[in-house]
């Protein structure tokens, strides 16, 4: 993963918007839309790709949304709303 030390990370709401399909494609376009560094957007998308989809009707564990202000935690929290862990 890219070194994200000192870079602005996305909010949970921004990641949720990326998941739901905000109508923007391309890392540079997403970075401009959200005011983030393209490296952060690329790392966020890589984290999203590593999440697993829970089967329909399965409960997402409450611990999935524990936040420690790391990119992985933010992405996991946003993904839990859409059934990803």
Structural features, described:
- It is globular and about 35 Å long.
- It has 85 residues and is mainly alpha-helical.
- The longest helix is centred in the middle third of the chain and has 13 residues, at 38-50.
- It starts with 11 loop residues before the first helix and ends in a 5-residue tail after the last helix.
- It contains four helices and no strands.
Summarize, please.
The chain is an all-alpha fold and 85 residues long. It has helices at residues 12-20, 27-34, 38-50, 71-80.
Secondary structure blueprint with pairings:
Elements lengths: L11 H9 L6 H8 L3 H13 L20 H10 L5
Helix pairs in contact: 1-4, 2-3, 3-4
Specify the overall morphology. globular
What series of H and E elements makes up the topology?
Answer: HHHH
Largest sheet: none
Strand content: under 5%
Radius of gyration from the CA trace? 13 Å
How many strand elements? 0
Measured between the Cα atoms of the first and last residue, the distance is 19 Å
Unreliable stretches covering 5 or more consecutive residues: none
So how many helices? 4
Quote the average pLDDT.
83
Helix content: 40-55%
Structural class: mainly alpha
């Amino acid at each position: 993963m890219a070194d994200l030390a000192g870079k602005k990370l996305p909010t949970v709401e921004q990641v949720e918007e990326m998941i739901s399909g905000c109508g923007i494609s391309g890392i540079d376009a997403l970075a401009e839309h959200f005011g983030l560094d393209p490296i952060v957007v690329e790392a966020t998308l890589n984290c999203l790709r590593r999440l697993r989809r829970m089967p329909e009707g399965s409960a997402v564990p409450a611990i999935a949304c524990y936040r420690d202000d790391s990119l992985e935690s933010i992405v996991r929290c946003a993904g839990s709303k859409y059934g990803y862990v």
